[in-house]
Amino acid sequence: MSYSRAHKCVILAQDFYLMIKDFKRTKLMAKIIAVANQKGGVGKTTTTVNLTASLALVQKRALLIDLDPQGNATMGCYIDKHELELSVLDVLLADADIKDCIQKVEKIGFDVLPANSDLTAAEVELMNIEGRELRLRNALAQVADDYDYIVIDCPPSLNMLTLNALVSANGVLIPMQCEYYALEGLSSLIETIDQVKSSVNPNLKIEGLVRTMYDPRNKLSTDVSAQLIEHFGDKVFNTVVPRNVRLAEAPSHGLPIINYDRSSKGALAYFSLAGEVVRRVRRETKAKRTAAA
Ligand SMILES: Nc1ncnc2c1ncn2[C@@H]1O[C@H](COP(=O)(O)OP(=O)(O)O)[C@@H](O)[C@H]1O
Ligand SMILES: [Mg+2]
C-alpha cells in the first residue's frame, strides 16, 4: 500500500469516526419538552408527570424538571417537597452541580429535578443575575447526553422560570382544557414562543397541543376541540386525555398513574400520548439527518 493510499485510509477512518460521533450525538442528545400554558389547572403537571412516566416505561431515559414553586410535580413523583436538600433553585441561583440536585427515583423509573416553594424567590433573584434566562439551559447542557427525554413542568405564568424552560427546550407541549376561555391567552404564549425562537433559541417549536380533561358528551368540549383543530391542524395530538378520577387520585399517593392504576383510561391516554410524542420526535430526527446528509 502506498503512503498516499494509507493516508487516504486514515482520512476515511477519521471521517467515519466523526460521522459516528455525530450520529451518536444526534441520537443521544435529549429531546427537551417544556409543558407550558400560563393558565392554571389545565393539566400541565398531570401531563408532565404521566408523559415522563410513560416514556420511562418504554425504556426511554427520562428526567422530569419541576419549575413550579407549587412543587406538585415533585410530590407526584414520590418525593416530599418539604424534605429537599437540593432543588432546581440551587441550579438556577447557586451554581450547584445539576447532577447533585437530580434525584433518581427507583419506584417510578425516572429522574427528577425537584422544586418547592423556595423557588418563588428565584423569580425575583434571577432578575439581578446576568444571563438569567440561560441559567437552566447552561445547566442542562451537562446532562443532555444522559437522557432521551427531559420534560419540564412550567408554572402557570409567563415569568422568568417559564422563560428559562422555553430557552432550554426544543419543543413546547401545550395542554388545553376544551372550555370557553381555553383559547384566551394562547396568543400570548405563542408570541412568547416566537420571541424566544427569534432571539436565543431558533430550535424551539410547538411540539403539539394536547386536549386534557376531555368530556366528549359536553358540546362545548367538542366545539372548542374542533376550533383547536381548525387553528392548529396536525399540531393537535390525536390522543385525547379524558376526565378520569384515577388521574386526580394518583398524586395523593405520590405516584404517576401508571404506578397507581395502569389499566385506567387516564393511564392508557398518557401511554398513547407518549407513543405519539416518540413517533413525532423520530420523524423530526430522521428529517434532520436527511437535511444534514
Ligand atoms: N384528565 C384529568 N382527569 C381528572 N382530573 C384531572 C385530569 N387532569 C388533571 N386533573 C386534576 O385537575 C387539577 C389540575 O391539574 P394540574 O395537572 O395540576 O394542572 P396545572 O399543572 O396546569 O395547574 C389537579 O387536581 C389534577 O389532579
Ligand atoms: Mg401545575
Please give a quick description of this structure:
The protein contains 13 helices and 8 strands.
Structure description:
- It is a single chain.
- This protein has one domain (5-288): Rossmann fold (3-Layer(aba) Sandwich), CATH 3.40.50.
- The chain is 47% helix and 15% strand.
- It has helices spanning 3-28, 44-57, 72-75, 88-93, 98-101, 120-125, 135-140, 160-168, 186-198, 219-232, 245-249, 257-260, 265-292, and strands at 31-35, 62-66, 103-105, 110-113, 149-153, 171-177, 206-214, 236-242.
- The protein has an 8-stranded mixed β-sheet, with helices on both faces.
- The structure holds adenosine-5'-diphosphate and magnesium ion.
- Magnesium ion is lined by residues 44-45, 68, 72.
- It comes from hydrothermal vent metagenome.
Topology summary:
Blueprint lengths: L2 H26 L2 E5 L8 H14 L4 E5 L5 H4 L12 H6 L4 H4 L1 E3 L4 E4 L6 H6 L9 H6 L8 E5 L6 H9 L2 E7 L8 H13 L7 E9 L4 H14 L3 E7 L2 H5 L7 H4 L4 H28 L1
Parallel strand pairs: 1-5, 1-6, 2-4, 2-5, 6-7, 7-8
Antiparallel strand pairs: 3-4
Pfam families: AAA_31
Protein name: Chromosome (Plasmid) partitioning protein ParA
